[in-house]
Amino acid sequence: MAKKIIENLKYNNTQKTNKNFMYRDLKRSNCYNTNFSGSNFSFASFRGAHFKSCDFFDCKFEWTEFIGTNLKKSKFKKSIFKNVVFEGVNLDGVDFLDAKFENVILVNTNIEKAKNLFLPEETRVFEIMPELNISDSLKKAINLAMENKYIKNSRTLDTKEGEINPISVMLLLENFNEKSLIKGLNLMNEKVEKDFSTLSYIIKTIKDYAKLGLL
After folding, report:
1. What are the pLDDT tens digits along the chain (215 aa)?
2. CB-hemisphere CA count at 13 Å for 79?
């Protein structure tokens, strides 16, 4: 997994087409009327970012996280979204013409004001954050993992209120059984020594532990 690259973008009325923004931490970036057509934003975090009236034609978003993002009046024509989370996102006037979605989750995000948004039937849409229902053992492992400063700083396992994030737990349990997940999180508490910004890093790391026979 590539190292997280922190890049607070501030583009206005600019052409930034066919660029590679993979693994970028775009936290609190502020861009307006910028053309990102053909760019790759996979494994990037848009936490708290503002990308208003921007053009994302034919862009790729895989394991990308839009958390508290303002996308007002941006266009995502023919873009691809796979394993993406939209949480608390402003989609007012956002155009998704011919965009493709696979395994996308939307939480506390009003989709009524979006344009040409046609989600597959299996798309999970939550009006509010779902309730957390996990064992005490898993809860203990998650809290232990968040004692690691890099995991805590990533904000991938907790909500803005500091509680365990049910969506993150849901995705982790779709990739691992509880026993393996607990072992993996315990190992991450000891081993993680670099910054990252999306849940995909935790999933990739625990899968690597499994390949090494550590789980």
Report:
1. 444 455 689 999 999 999 999 999 999 999 999 999 999 999 999 999 999 999 999 999 999 999 999 999 999 999 999 999 999 999 999 999 999 999 999 999 999 999 999 999 999 999 999 999 999 999 999 999 999 999 999 999 999 889 999 999 999 999 999 999 999 999 999 999 999 999 999 999 999 999 999 99
2. 28
Sequence spans of domains, the chain: 1-128, 136-211
φ and ψ at 214, to 5 degrees? Answer: -85, -10
Closest CA to 3 of 149, 142, 146, 154: 154
CB 87 within 8 A of CB 107: yes
Give this prediction's pTM: 0.92
- Please provide residue 40's backbone torsions phi and psi, each rounded to the nearest 5 degrees: -110, 115
Q: Contact at 8 Å (CB) between 91 and 109?
A: yes
| DSSP letter string, the chain | -PPPEE-----BS-B-TT-B-TTEE-TT-EEES-B-TT-B-TT-B-TT-EEET-B-TT-EEES-EEES-B-TT-B-TT-EEES-EEES-B-TT-B-TT-EEES-EEES---TT-BS----TT-EEESSPPPP---HHHHHHHHHHTTSHHHHHHTSSB-TTSSB-HHHHHHHHHHS-HHHHHHHHHHHHHH--S---SHHHHHHHHHHHHHTT--
As a whole number of angstroms, the distance between CA 146 and CA 157 comes to 7
